[in-house]
Amino acid sequence: MTPAETAHDHTSDRQQAFDPAKQPALFDGILSRRALAFLFDAFMICILMIVFSLVIAVLGIVTLGLGFLLYAILFPVTALGYAAVTLGSYKAATPGMRLMGLEMRLWYGAKPYALLAIMHSLLFWVAGSILTPFVLLVGLFTSRKQLLHDIVLGTVVIDRDALRELEQHRTFQSL
Questions:
Q1: How far is 164 from 168, CA to CA, in rounded Å?
Q2: For the chain, which ranges sit under pLDDT 50?
Q3: Which of these, 114, 125, 115, 69, lies nearest to 90 by C-alpha position?
């Protein structure tokens, strides 16, 4: 066996799990529902920031002003923590995404993990700050309705109900 054969990358054996030509229901109305999910999640993050602001205020008083330094990291810690705990969970969706019937998966079908969820959020905010509206316009021209940060990270947002139906169909066929 040659060194190239022993160092074979098994990720190349994986195939795209979601084909818009074969499963168009997975991608119907994704972009508009993603926008609404974003607004809901932004509202939830604001509520969390208010709660954490009150905690920091009390902590600042107790520590004679030292705790007030935590205000500098309030938004990033709250927003990234929200993404890691929700999007990186077994449900693979933020509360806004769940409300809109969406779920995130990796290109080969696996669910995202906490670090990927954090990277997804960071890349969204950085790219959105620099390349707006290009980040969002990309979704209009990709077959999987992926935004720029989705393409870079290899993620796809799909319709949760259509995915469940597809999984049930696959299970039924394997019986």
A1: 6
A2: 1-9
A3: 114
